[in-house]
Each structure stands twice: as structure tokens, then as C-alpha cells.
Model the fold of this input.
Amino acid sequence: MASIPNPAAEKASIEAFRRDVIDASKTALVLVDFWAEWCGPCKTLGPALEKLVAARAPKVQLVKIDVDKNQALAAQFRIQSIPTVYAFLDGRPVDGFQGALPETQLAQFIDRLLAGVPASEDEAALEEQIAQLIVAADEATAAGAHDDAIAMLGAVANEIPERHDLAARLALAMLAAGRSEEAAAVLAQLPADSKDELVIRARAGLALAAEAPADDELAALIAQVNKAPDDHAARFELAGALAGRGDRDAAAEHLLAIIKADRTWNEGAAREKLLTMFEAAGLADPWSIKTRAALRAIWFA
Done:
């Protein structure tokens, strides 16, 4: 039996939509989930959406609309299958999808749209404070005041644990201070599949630091390479040791020498080590740019 239209209920539904979606999307990303009690995929999508939105509040809000109880709205948006999700920004729909997406895809969908959400005055002020603190920490690290840099970054990273980039900066400061175990503990708390550039840098730096040898071991490696310049295994080990101690110019020189002599040695291990060093330094770092140019010159010679 078809339901009987209820003009008063429909009017209230439309007014709620204007308030909770249209108006709210002027200051936040609003996701509208069209669903129904009888819909199996809706029961999969709903909890995942709620979890992701809660983690990103108040920048993201979720409005759930039961299509059976809000038939006029469902018809207005031409909902033909559920679940259907529309994303609203600045009073208008900007994207959407149908079906129950995996949580990782949902997170990517939300985070991509969040880039279009304007920062509030409080958020802008906080970002300015964080930027100033990062500059101060970088200056402290450059001056050798590692404990000061770690203290500053540690305070803000603990205050905003969801900011993985801040945790990564803290780990990088610890690595610069030679405190690898502490850096490893910080990075262990971050998602293993994080694509944050600073997290990737910190993990690459930690991998390099693990190869740092004692002074006598380094001296022995240098002597071995001087004695047998064609011993690629010894030269590769020396390069790793130098990289672990932060002498990236000398490390790169040895790795490039291996590649120039035999680019396929040990399944391209020398090139892979250089790539790890590029990740640790950051691809935009002047050293990375210079060394990648040297690598290309050898590789395509």
C-alpha cells in the first residue's frame, strides 16, 4: 500500500534539511547518508561513516536520512538505490557515491573533500602557532639544541595526537639527536600504511640510523674498501654505515660508485639504498635534487 503524503511532515523534513545540511555546510563538510532499516549494505556503511566522521569532527558532520520516512527528499535527490551518500560544501552537493565502500576508500573520499573546508578563526590561529613552533624547533635542531627541539615538538604532538605529521617531526628531531629507540617508539604508534610525507621520511631515517656502527667498526670498513676497491659488498656496508651516521655525501659517493661499476649488483641494492636516503631527506631537499641528478647521469650514460 502506498503511503499517504503528509504535507506538514514533508515541510518539517525539508526545513530540517535546510538547517542541518545546507546551512551547516557553509562551515563544515556535511555527508548525507540516504538509508533504510531494511537495507543490508546500509548497516555496513553506517557505522564506518559514523566512526570516520567522529574522528574528524567538527570539520565533518553526518546527517542520516531514512528514505522511507523522507520520501519527498529521496525523490528530490532521485535516490534510486541505497545506501547513497552526498557530500555538501558551501550549501551545495559537491560529490557522492552509491553502495558500501571499504573504510579506507571512505576515509580517502572524506579527506579529499576536507581540503575544501575553510578553516575557522580558531583553527587558523592554532595553525599559525604550530607553524611558529615548527620553525623554532627547526632552528633549535640546526643549532644543536636537540633537547629543546624535542621538548617543543613533543608537547604539541601529545596535544594533537591525530596530527601524524607532528609525531613524525618529533621522531626526526629524536633521530637528529641520536635517540633512535625513542624515535622508533613514536613511529610505532602511527598507522603502518601512513602516506604522510614526513612519516615516510622519519621511517626511512630510522632505517638508515639502524645501520650506524661504532667508530672502530667504521674504521675497519673504510680500511677494507681502501684495500679492495672492487669489493662492492664492503663498499655497500660502508655506505650504509656512513648514511646511518648522517654523512650522506660520503654515503652517496660510495653508492654511486657501485652503480657506475655494476648497476645490477645485488639486484640493484645500491640504487634502493639511495632511494631510501632520498625519502629520509625529502625529495625536495637540495641534497636529494643534486644527488638524483648524479644518479640519472650515471644511470642513463
Summary: Residues 174 and 183 are 6 Å apart (CA to CA). The chain has a mean pLDDT of 91. The chain is about 65% helix and 10% strand. The radius of gyration is 27 Å.
